[in-house]
Amino acid sequence: MSIVSGISDFFGLDIGTSSIRLVQLGSAGRGGLKPLIKYAQIPISAKLVLSDSQADQQKVMQTVKELLNEAKVSTSNVAAGIPSHKVFTTVVDMDRLPHNELASAIKYQADSLIPTTVSESKIDWVLLGDSPKDKTKVEVLLTSVTNHYAESRLDLLESIGLNVVAFEPDPFALLRALVPRDYHLPVVILDIGSKATDLIIAMNGAPRLIRSIPTGSEAIIHSAAQNLNISEEQARQFVFKFGLSKDKLEGQVHSAIVSTVDILTGEIEKSIKFFQARYSDQKIERIIVSGGASSLPEFPLHIAGKFNINVEIGNAWRNVAFPPERQNELIAISNSFSVAVGLAEREE
Questions:
Q1: How many other CB atoms sit within 10 Å of the CB of residue 149?
Q2: Do the first three CATH levels of 11-85+147-180+318-344 and 212-311 match, i.e. the same topology?
Q3: pTM for the whole structure
Q4: What is the pLDDT of residues 214-238, one digit of tens each?
Q5: What does CATH list as the number for 212-311?
Q6: Which CATH number fits the domain 87-145, given the four candidates 3.30.365.10, 3.30.1490.300, 2.70.70.10, 3.40.190.170?
Q7: How many CB atoms lie within 10 A of CB 315?
Q8: Long-range residue pairs from 229-238, CB within 8 A, at least 24 positions apart, any chain
């Protein structure tokens, strides 16, 4: 899943469930920031993206090709995201061994660590450091994706003339885009998409917990439509206009959606407790929210109130250089471009 050495000219491609997005950056200048060359997005049907049908996946690739043509991307090299629900990620404790022996031990034990068989999976790992539970062991972050998914996605991207230089799980791209490079304390990232929410708890620049929670903005909108007895389209307008505000429309929208939002906050709470149980000497002091539902009025305040933790809206462009006059334009779309920006920021 790593970048091909020596290739610096590539773009990041995020095939989401509601839109396909791309970002291309130039080489880092002074201050280490990469300049924005171009970004683009195109809407797509979730049914197509989530379908296993070869014909539907080919339609997705035709939409990607349409986006590339519209954006006039100057390179065929691409770093492509892998959605969280297609990737298994875990942190495990391993015996303290030399690097080559550790690699062998991980391969030998992988069958008991990942949900698919080793022969059917692509496995990647990174050494995080000492285990917080047992000082005789080391902590390893392990990721796996099925060969079937990786190879079929590679074939599809190559079929439209692209050269895949990297596949990377979306949470790793989110972390790179949204967390300041000099921030090493524990941080929660919530990327709330239309179908699901990616939750990442990271520390020292590396994920320690990754989850895909099957509650996204569509569930919140559906809840509003049912409880207010209105159409889904009207519910969408109400949800994004009034959100969790208790003093707008007499708090009717808040009352209609708060139980669904609290399903999400319940899962966040479980994740934080799981992290704290393993890293008992660490305290989470920051939550960064991104994705479509991060713009719901009062949503960040609701999360902050639940956990008594500082909550901020993520800025996908924080590590990207661009002219000041483009700031408003880019901030307006920031919450949907985090994955694509993170992929484009990969080091060559």
A1: 17
A2: yes
A3: 0.92
A4: 999 999 999 999 999 999 999 999 9
A5: 3.30.420.40
A6: 3.30.1490.300
A7: 19
A8: none
